Amino acid sequence: MKMTEEDNAVGPPVTEEDVRLLIKRKDDIEEQIKAYDDMLRTQAGVGMDAPLVDVEGFPRADVDLYKVRTARHNISCLQNDHKSIMVEIEEALHKLHATARVKPEKDETKMEVTEPAVSLSAPFALVDTVTQGSPAFQAGLRVGDEIIELGSVNTQNFRNLRDIASVVQHSEGKSLRVGLLRSGQEMHLNLTPKQWSGRGLLGCNLVPLQR
Fold first, then answer.
1. Regarding beta strands 176-182 and 185-191, do their DSSP bridges make them parallel or antiparallel, or are they unpaired?
2. Residue 174: its pLDDT value, please?
3. Is the backbone of residue 42 left (phi > 0), alpha (psi -120 to 50) or beta?
4. 3-state secondary structure (DSSP) of residue 189
């Protein structure tokens, strides 16, 4: 009876395959965003914010205005879709972990495998985006990874994302140990914050997990 009540509390059961499908949809959206972004780079590098008129107020002649406006519009729409899918992924991951806790007998072997992750407490941040070619991408981080350790930051001392930003800024060019959960398994990666062609020193975005 207890298991039935808890199952009802966490909603319909979520499988790892459900999460993988959501992440696949997220990857497709990111690929589309990247394609439009690459196109904007070919238009005199206008990006999302550069003005489309010259200093005299006339339309710029060095860019295809229709292509740029269309790409910017599509990127904005896709970014909204991306935010929505990330919410779905986070909710699905929470449900998946809740289901694992409700069924300890079936997951007994898996729990033994992931015991080191449990000992480090619950993850405190979720990888929201990873830009291709970035330091985070090269280190092996994936969207949907749940961070349990990043350098000196862990669940016990994490307060907000500024803690991570501080560690990253003070570790430029130095390897940071990253502990994470992926599909219920604990993994460790080495990530070196550094300057690259994109924004920031990592090339990924993290969102805090509400616990």
1. antiparallel
2. 93
3. alpha
4. strand
Nearest to 6 by CA among 118, 111, 108, 103: 103
pLDDT value at residue 11:
54
Q: Could you give the residue ranges of the DSSP H alpha helices within the chain? A: 2-10, 16-42, 65-102, 108-113, 115-119, 135-139, 161-169
Q: What is the pLDDT of residues 38-60, one digit of tens each?
A: 888 888 778 888 888 877 888 88
Enter the tokens of residue 70: 């269309």
- d(CA 11, CA 16) in angstroms, rounded, equals 15
The answer to whether the beta carbons of residues 36 and 74 sit under 8 Å apart is yes
Per-residue pLDDT, 9:
46
Residue 77 has pLDDT above 70, yes or no: yes
Nearest-angstrom CA–CA distance, 114 and 38: 40
Q: How many CA atoms lie within 13 A of 32 on its CB side?
A: 18
What is the identity of the amino acid at 184?
Answer: G
DSSP state of 204: E
Tell me phi and psi for residue 195, to 5 degrees.
-70, 140
Cite the beta strand spans of 120-201 per DSSP E.
Answer: 125-130, 146-150, 153-154, 176-182, 185-191
Alpha-carbon separation of residue 169 from 66, 89, 136, 166 (angstroms): 39, 28, 14, 5
Interatomic CA distance for residues 177 and 188, integer angstroms: 7
pLDDT tens for residues 93-132? Answer: 777 777 666 555 444 444 444 444 334 458 899 999 999 9
